[in-house]
Amino acid sequence: GLHLIGQRDTELVLTGWELDALALHQSTGVASLALPRGATCLPPALLPYLEQFKRITLWLGEDLRSWEAAKLFARKLSLKRCSLVRPSDLQPRPLEALNQGLNVTKILRAALPASHKSIVSFRQLREEVFGELVNTEQVAGIKWARFPELNKLLKGHRRGELTIFTGPTGSGKTTFISEYALDLCMQGVCTLWGSFEISNVRLAKIMLTQFAGRRLEDQLELYDEWADRFEDLQLYFMTFHGQQNIK
């Protein structure tokens, strides 16, 4: 059936027998091909002929062997562009479907995607895994300058991670987290504070003191100098404080 395929055809139904391809073309008009060695063999030499198609539906037969072959072929052809017709009494091979007066077009539309949007194979992850192995330091994230021991535990501040610090009242959570955030902020990590218990003024005072490394209340003449430098950081504060409506 290859000679009947046009250069503009982007959808294809792949079958196991010539009569199935003819039945499909007769009943639906879709581009159809038959595998030259039956439903259980897809020689690698044929793959280049199938590159032009954006969507391939595999309708190979009506037994378990054909179904397993279809799943294997879909992996060879790229799962993203393949759909499979699952064999059943209501979905026999195309020639039988035509002879029984079944709606062949409806069966094609009900074909199952070979890939699931929530499931991937290692083949799809392979290059990304290699990238992580090559760029180990980059994957580790941005390391803290002040907390070398923390780097050993968390490997740095990494995109997509959520870290929760817990402890009793007065144990120093806020003091530590402000230092922790300031360390990263000084390295260019854009930082947003959402503090519902401590006012932004008090929080900014703590962070400015940590940033300056001195008690500015005893050296007020230095306030503007350190405030100007602190102002240049990518540091922002939410205006929420106390109890808030969840919306």
Automatic annotation (TrEMBL):
Cellular component annotations (GO), alphabetically ordered: mitochondrion
CDD domains associated with the record: TOPRIM_primases (cd01029)
Domain SF4 helicase: start-end pairs: 136-247
A single BP term in Gene Ontology: mitochondrial DNA replication
InterPro entries: DNA_helicase_DnaB-like_C (IPR007694), P-loop_NTPase (IPR027417), TOPRIM_DnaG/twinkle (IPR034154), Twinkle-like (IPR027032)
PANTHER family according to UniProt: T7-LIKE MITOCHONDRIAL DNA HELICASE, TWINKLE MTDNA HELICASE
Name listed for the protein in its UniProt record: SF4 helicase domain-containing protein
